[in-house]
Amino acid sequence: MKRRRVFVDATFVRALLDDDVEKFNEARTVFASLLDEYERGETVLYSHAGMVAAVGGDRTDDLFRVCEVEPVRRQLRRRAWRLVNRISGLDENQAIALLMLRREAIGEIATLDPLYAEMGVPTVC
Amino acid sequence: MVEDPADRPAVNSGAATDYRDVVAADPWARVRLALVGLYVVGYVVWFKVYGLIIDRISVLISVAILLVLSHVGRSLSRWGRLAVDGVLYSSMWILYDQSRGIADGLGRPLQVESVRNIDRFLFLGNDPSVWLQRHFYSRAVVRWYDVAGSITYYTHFVVPIAAIVVLWITDRREWVRFMRRFASVLLIACVLFVIVPTAPPWMAAGGSSQHQLQALPALARPTARGWFHLDLTGFVRAWETGLDWTNPVAAMPSLHASFSLFVVVFFFPWVRRWPLRVAFLAFPVAMAFSIVYFAEHYVADVFAGWAIVGASFLVWNRVELRARSRRREMSSAAFATLGSRIAPSPP
């Protein structure tokens, strides 16, 4: 079975934690659906350690428990910085996410960051 | 020289740029594809000249070469993971071979009539191998089903290993799922080989010089004649050499039956088209027919082989579902308790 692969971005996780965010309800609905698919084994969720750190706070690891969290090793960081230097307005976490999307063939991203949609990444929120 | 996307000229703004234009999928992917292509050509040439690579050490070496080629240009962490996986994988096969080899030397009584009697009970007093050979086998003529049966029989030595390697290269997550179930099947099979060493039909019919048995009428063991008919004698030589170091009484359960069903069950959800699904399902049935017709196994061995596959999938499916449910609960609980504490978002 070809499983759906979705990257979980820090902005999406933050939206789930903050009911003042405009897309709070939409994010919750999307996340509930993703969790259902995850539990059925139909969807694999990904993130990276930089995103986990960006969310911050207690029990952040538990928030991302359903995700395959890629550690940010030196080689990955170096490649990300090459990308940051080439594209204005891109930060390290975004660059690592883009690298992961491409390398792991992740088809979608759960995010509230408009950059990904502008760069042609299919978004789920 | 592989182009590194970071060496390309700078892009002014991410807003107008498609990420696929600036982030290469993998600059080494084509190199790896070419190397794997060369490997496949080499494997086919080897197969035609020397026969199938069948002994465990040679299989492990050939798999290792393919994995190394398929990891060229990958990160150090991927290489490290491959090394750990490789050690575990090799250990599994070596332990399997060792335990399978000693199974008939532990003093357990050889099962000759008990398994045969199960078949007779299932088939109303008939012995399926005897019946099939009486109705279909001809010493003088090699028929199409002899060839098809030989080919099906020998896929056992290629298909599971090919599936493992392809998953290993393309999707390690699926490889782990596959290997959990596969290792469980091997473990259960080894335990059964020790507990119930069983004479296969060809041996029960007096085909072994070591065990003089007469529990069945005389049976041929025409497993390789399809390959002789195709003039692929190298293939058969490799298999006959392999017979010297295998345990001939490790017949219950049939791993030929197990592996053929295992691959089908694992990959079935990937197969969408119905004709392909039917062909897929026909594979374990064809394998069952072949091994019974060739007097390699009883039907009871086949059913036992299928049963351990079913048990392995049932247990691991449940274990994995429970693990996912537990992670979901932990994640949901963290969101529920942290909701008011982490907001607001940074600017």
Distance between the termini of chain B: 43 Å
Global structural class of chain A: alpha/beta
The CATH topology of chain A corresponds to: Rossmann fold
Series of H and E elements of chain B: HHHHHHHHHHHHHHH
Strand content of chain B: under 5%
| Percentage of β-strand residues of chain A | 5-15%
Low-confidence stretches of chain B: 1-15
The major pleated sheet of chain B works out as: none
The geometry of chain B reads as globular
Give the helix level of chain A as a range of percent: 40-55%
Helix/strand order of chain A: EHHEHHEHHEH
How many domains of chain A, as an integer?
1
Shape of chain A: globular
According to DSSP, the number of beta strands of chain B is 0
Q: Helical element count of chain A?
A: 7
Q: For this structure, what is the CATH class of chain A?
A: Alpha Beta
> What is the number of helices of chain B?
15
For the largest interface, the chains and their residue counts are:
A-B, 52 and 47 residues
